[in-house]
Amino acid sequence: MAIAGAALFFQSCGNSSSDAADTDDTSMTATDTMMNDEPTTKGESMTDTAFANKAAISGLTEVELGKLALEKATNAKLKDFASMMVKDHGKENDELKAIAKSKSIVLPATLDQEHQMKMEELKGKSGVEFDKAYAMAMVEGHQKTLDLMEKGGAGLADADLKGFAAKTAPVVKHHLDMITSIHGELK
């Protein structure tokens, strides 16, 4: 099944997201295969739909983990950061949904398996242990999201998605700088 998914992904890389017949297949492929942690290699382009799906999962994750941190974090700076995650990424999620809808791209409405597992792992922690694990998850997640936004801003075909990526990258960079500092204080 993984091989078939990978084959569909590589086949869809050359297709534009504006091809209505392929949108649903590409969206499903992106949801199933693009959520891994492997970065796009040099010279390999990412489809608009794959970008939108990865960005949607990233945004959903930041909001859901932020809500969890608002309940469980003991560190005041982490609680403030979590509140910012819910607000900023919630706003970005709404913007991405509007763009995707105008492009007939179906975005995932729930976390993928990888991020749901991270959520469950964090739910099982408390106190300082939760704080450290949440901060580390935010550092790792924002590094990946920044990479995604930078690649999207440079390489996407769709002007609206490209603009979204370019506009979102500095916000994610700011978040990354903040959480890196907070994480350093927790050690």
CATH class: Mainly Alpha
| Proportion of strand residues | under 5%
Largest sheet: none
Question: What's the pLDDT, averaged over the residues?
Answer: 81
At CATH level 3, the topology is Ferritin
Judging by the overall fold, what is the CATH architecture? Answer: Up-down Bundle
Q: What's the number of helices?
A: 7
Describe it for me?
Helix 3 packs antiparallel against helix 4 and helix 6 (127-155) packs antiparallel against helix 7. The protein has a single domain (54-186), classed as Ferritin, core subunit, four-helix bundle (Ferritin). It is mainly α and 187 residues long. Residues 1-44 have low confidence and may be disordered. The protein starts with a helix and ends with a helix. It contains seven helices and no strands.
Task: Set down the secondary structure blueprint.
Blueprint: H1 2-12, H2 20-33, H3 48-72, H4 76-102, H5 113-123, H6 127-155, H7 159-186
Helix pairs in contact: 1-2, 2-3, 3-4, 3-5, 3-6, 4-7, 6-7
How would you summarize what this structure contains?
With 187 residues, the chain is an all-alpha fold. The chain has a single domain (54-186), classed as Ferritin.
Which labels suit this protein?
single chain, mainly alpha, 7 helices, disordered N terminus
